[in-house]
Amino acid sequence: MQIGLIGLGKMGFNMCERLRRSGTEVLGYDPHVNSSDVSSIDALVEALPPPRIVWVMVPAGVPTQETITHLSQALSPGDLVIEGGNSRFSEDIHHAKALDARGIGYIDCGVSGGIWGLENGYALMVGGSEEHVDRAMPLFDALRPEGPRGEGFVHAGPIGAGHYSKMVHNGIEYGLMQAYAEGFELLEATELVENVPAVIEAWSRGTVVRSWLLDLLVRALKDDPELSGISGWTQDSGEGRWTVEEAIRNAVPVPVISAALFARFASRQETSPSMKAISALRNQFGGHSTSRADAALDQVKAAAR
To answer: Coiled-coil intervals in this record (predicted)?
Structure first.
């Protein structure tokens, strides 16, 4: 089997390698790396024998839209596009319609596995027609973890279902990470626990909170027991926001995921306007003292010495 893969970043490059290990012929293209097999999208399409399958692994938003638009003009009827980035599910409908108008098939595929997917395999959540999914199944089987197909792959539904499933997956991920992080901070705050990394590692087996994410936290703490070399500033990919938006639209309470998302927003504030307002209000109604920002900063610096 032969496919083209556009986007050779951390995920795309490793996916290429895993597919090649399975015997799949992969032509990779990325304008930003030196490991491209071809010089352009047009060259990629020309090098693939029809009917073609092209897998897209580029950042969500404009890069994905531009790539899909280009492919809609370059590919031929009977070809198939698999969009494996972290696009919003609502965009899949537009991508599919644009391609369908030219007789080109479309599958949206949520991919989970990160940098570990090369060796461990990727969890795949796909949306699309049964016909298109069956056609691409050898690729999905090559990429997913070993074992029963249903434990690493799902045909979740029609177009958009794959990315919707991945969106919810990432929302859950936000909540899990936040819970582990808060537990770590509480352990660090008490004088009773003398070896925080050891406590967290002890949770790795036999406990109800064990998970791969916990294993990764153990790994991070072995590299830096106090995480002193890491900033607390935390980005969000957008999927946590979309999960909360969908929860509001469907009137589904998601307090944990929402709190985890807002915690990431808080991590990016050098100072908190809302907490300044609270301090000011306490002073107004109760006469409670307030601290000048520069004085508070001096206290933080002194404590760090």
So the answer is: none
> What pLDDT is recorded for position 194?
95
Q: Of the given ranges (89-93, 103-107, 247-251, 268-272), which has the lowest mean pLDDT?
A: 268-272
Q: Which residue has the tokens 């004085």?
A: 295
Q: How far apart are CA 170 and CA 175, in angstroms?
A: 9
Q: What residues contact residue 297 under an 8 Å CB cut-off, 6+ apart? A: none
The residues that are catalytic are: 166, 173
Burial of 41 (0-12, 13-18, 19+ CB in 10 A): buried
pLDDT of 207 over the 90 cut: yes
Residues listed for the chain? 305
SS3 for 294? helix
151 C-beta neighbours (distance < 10 Å), count? 11
Separation of CA 190 from chain center: 33
3-state secondary structure of 239: helix
- pLDDT tens-place string over residues 40-87: 999 999 999 999 999 999 999 999 999 999 999 999 999 999 999 999
